[in-house]
Design a protein that fits this description.
The complex is a heterodimer of chains A (292) and B (331).
Chain A (H helix, E strand, L loop, with lengths): L1 H46 L5 H5 L12 H32 L4 H13 L4 H15 L6 H25 L3 H9 L4 H30 L2 H5 L20 H10 L3 H33 L5
Chain B lengths: L1 H18 L8 H53 L2 H6 L15 H32 L2 H16 L2 H19 L8 H26 L2 H9 L4 H30 L2 H7 L16 H10 L7 H31 L5
Helix pairs in contact in B: 2-12, 4-7, 4-9, 5-7, 6-7, 6-10, 7-9, 7-10, 8-9, 9-12, 10-11, 11-12
The chains are: A mainly alpha (292), B mainly alpha (331).
Chain lengths: 292, 331
């Protein structure tokens, strides 16, 4: 009788622990989502009143009422376009080499290990490298070009890893069919493998570029200017960027500048979320078309 | 342009003519359509191969570049400041007189933020990963996952803003002794920042635990809690720890949020309510000012950068070593 009771109590206790554990884990999950909503709600609350056409279309100012993000916005557009121009061909090229060309040698393993490690290097370290290499050694000075090249270094490993993943998802039968028809290696890659992996590569590229858009640390290290009352017009112009502008406004003690920062963050988040939405759209729309 | 090309064609043709032992008759259609291309094909392919190789080698060059630049400037720094003072000194005031170059306060600040953010992120992250992997319905996962992706995509400077405007006032309300800039607010926002990373890595690891292990445990009469806590999590433990290491390494390298939230006073303290400075924040501080090239002050950022690079790299390599073993243990 007593053993029976024991079984029942352990069983009930087991059920209670099970329930408690499930609830705790569920709560943790909900916490993540709730945190996200609280943060975004907080930013919207502070920033929404400062968002206006004037905010987007005026330069920086000492007076919060007159301050805007025009130079930061254009700086970011310059940076992101140049970064895309540099990093996409290099990154996709490296991925194609590693997946389609390199033999399974020690050299390939070394490059692969190296790329995964580079992806974990803090972005400020790339900033220091950019400072020593582009700003000082190559003499590009504190220009848009230096900034874009530094950002290229930051996103390159991410683009390579994402593109490799996309290339790997193309089944080998496609390659063999192309070879069987007499295609050379590059013809196989260019006409078959790359088009088939394009949705995956594009998703990876868009996500990496959205990461570059939010980076401030490496740009500060290469000397992005705090006060730039003009729009960059050539590669050698000085620049500022949206995240840097947000940083500067946040670092000020006055409440009004914090609200300006919140408005700047709203602009940044809208751009980032639309980029993410495009990535998801590309993945769903074009990813499903291809069937093997 | 055309003259150049035809020159090249001729030379190629002559080379082929000399070396080819048997000349197969080429189909007329091929000759007219792309005969030149066909003959140039091997060279073209070789060129492409070479260009792609260059692309891949750039990543190695970047690593070499980082190491060379950091070492080159750091070695010059260590001519001026003894390496022993740098590693064991307890005061860091390179921008003020009298100058002290002991990196321990910066290291301490970095470790405080990294440890504090891990305390925030590990329980929530692990709980979420377990829930998503073991308990959640596919539909619930589909709803939650995009939110986590958004969380992962929020730039670091935004977390810095939230630390100052949102988290710090709450902390000062609870602990009136806390300053405007305090390590605790940095720990909390950096913890939130590394959450998505812990969740997605740990969840992948948990999913990789074979179903047969779970089935065997259920067959022995274990309930869901026992299966999860005594079988699945222990089986995935090494991978989970690797994900923590990667997240902490990210926290060490985290810059903007920490610069904004934690302040700029290098201090050898473990009190999270005080203002501190991390290695990354110091680099930003110097970069913002006008420190002339070639001075000791300028070189400090390379020495600090070297320490930062070494500590994150070490953690990443250990984590990747563990992760590379994860797949093998079930086979």
């Amino acid at each position: 009788m007593s053993t029976n009771l024991d079984i029942y109590t352990t069983k009930r206790r087991g059920r209670i622990t099970n329930f408690l554990f499930t609830s705790v884990c569920f709560l943790a999950t909900i916490t993540c989502v709730v945190l996200l909503f609280i943060m975004i709600w907080n930013i919207i609350l502070h920033g929404k009143n400062w968002l206006s056409w004037d905010f987007l279309n005026s330069y920086q100012s000492r007076f919060p009422d007159k301050a805007g993000i025009k130079s930061a916005l254009f700086g970011s557009i310059w940076l992101i376009s140049l970064t895309a121009l540099f990093s996409v061909p290099l990154g996709v090229g490296a991925a194609v080499y590693l997946e389609e060309y390199a033999s399974k040698s020690r050299w390939r393993k070394l490059i692969q290990l190296n790329i995964s490690n580079l992806a974990g290097v803090p972005s400020i370290v790339y900033g220091i490298l950019g400072l020593a290499l582009f700003v000082r050694a190559l003499g590009f000075d504190r220009s848009v070009l230096s900034g874009a090249l530094t950002l290229t270094l930051v996103v390159l490993p991410i683009i390579i890893l994402a593109s490799q993943e996309a290339l790997r998802s193309v089944p080998d039968s496609i390659r063999r069919s192309a070879y069987a028809l007499g295609a050379t290696r590059w013809q196989t890659v260019w006409y078959q493998v790359l088009p088939a992996s394009l949705p995956g590569i594009m998703t990876g590229v868009i996500l990496s570029l959205s990461r570059a858009l939010g980076e401030a640390a490496p740009l500060i290290a290469v000397g992005a200017m705090a006060y730039v009352p003009f729009v960059p017009e050539s590669l050698s112009d000085e620049f500022t960027a949206l995240p840097i502008q947000i940083f500067i406004w946040t670092a000020r003690p006055q409440e009004d500048f914090h609200s300006l920062a919140a408005a700047g963050i709203l602009v940044l988040l809208v751009v980032l979320v639309s980029m993410n939405a495009i990535a998801i759209f590309v993945r769903h729309k074009y990813g499903k078309k291809i069937r093997w | 342009m055309t003259a150049e090309r035809s020159d090249k064609e001729q030379s190629v043709e002559m080379e082929l003519g000399e070396t080819a032992a048997i000349k197969l008759p080429r189909p007329a259609s091929l000759e007219s359509a792309g005969g030149v291309m066909v003959r140039l094909r091997p060279y073209y392919e070789g060129l492409i191969h070479f260009l792609l190789f260059i692309c891949a080698s750039i990543s190695v060059l970047v690593t070499v570049g980082i190491v060379v630049v950091l070492l080159f400037e750091s070695v010059q720094f260590f001519f001026d400041v003894s390496i022993i003072e740098f590693l064991t000194g307890t005061r860091w005031t390179p921008l003020l007189k009298p100058q002290h170059f002991g990196i321990l306060p910066l290291m301490c600040g970095t470790m405080l933020v990294a440890g504090g953010s891990a305390i925030v992120a590990v329980p929530i992250g692990l709980g979420t990963a377990i829930y998503l992997s073991e308990y959640a319905s596919p539909r619930f996962r589909d709803i939650v996952k995009p939110f986590l992706e958004i969380l992962a995509g929020i730039p670091s400077v935004v977390y810095g803003y939230l630390a100052i405007v949102f988290v710090s006032p709450i902390i000062r309300y609870i602990f009136p002794s806390a300053g405007v800039f305090n390590a605790a607010s940095a720990c909390i926002v950096v913890g939130i920042m590394i959450l998505p990373m812990i969740i997605s890595l740990s969840e992948d690891i948990l999913q990789a635990v074979p179903l047969s292990l779970r089935g065997a445990a259920f067959a022995l009469g274990a309930n869901k809690f026992e299966v999860t806590v005594r079988v699945v999590v222990p089986a995935a433990l090494s991978g989970i720890i690797a994900s923590f290491l990667l997240a902490v390494s990210r926290a060490i390298g985290e810059t903007m949020a920490v610069t904004l939230a934690a302040g700029a006073t290098p201090k050898l303290t473990l009190n999270p309510l005080e203002s501190i400075q991390t290695m990354t924040a110091y680099i930003v501080q110097v970069s913002q000012g006008d420190t002339p090239t070639g001075t000791v002050e300028y070189r400090t950022i390379f020495a600090v950068g070297l320490m930062l690079f070494i500590s994150t790299m070490a953690m990443n390599i250990i984590a990747q070593f563990i992760l590379s073993r994860v797949g093998e243990q079930y086979e």
